[in-house]
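Hallway conversation turned thread

IA: we were arguing at lunch whether anyone had actually written out Methylamine utilization protein MauE end to end. Turns out nobody had. So, for the record, here is the sequence (147 residues) and right after it the structure tokens. Reply here if something looks off.
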Amino acid sequence: MRAMYVHKGNKKVRSLLLEVIPYVLAFLFLYTGFSKLMDPVGTYQGLSNQVLPTLLAELLFYSLPPIELTIAVLLLKDRTIKIGLASFSILMTVFSAYIILVLTGVFGRVPCSCGGVLNSLGWWEHLWFNLFFLGLAGIGLKLKSEK
């Protein structure tokens, strides 16, 4: 009897997580996307300071906000949550890989982590922040696949 209760409890927890995780991730990308749009000069300066070719920095300047906002919308619609979770995971993996390359000295210099939405974080803190949200997305994908 007790095992049955725990199973039902787990089902409730899973359901709650599947409801909450997409909203948390969507909030993050809504925040970052709109922040970039509200401060285009700071966003451009931050991207220009990175160890990126100028053309790539400009491409990211124009493409990141709409990509983040689109992913946020995908996370908020029941029919598109799974693709939103996958898209979120891909983008956060790319961001995290870049941070790892910076931290391991691949670029020869460590660019300032300034100019971003999370400008008070250093590179290590930003990596842990990203990995936390990437983990949430992974949990969401697993739960959505089990549903």
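OS: looked through it. The chain has one domain: 2-146.
IA: good, adding that to the notes. Residues 2-146 form one domain.
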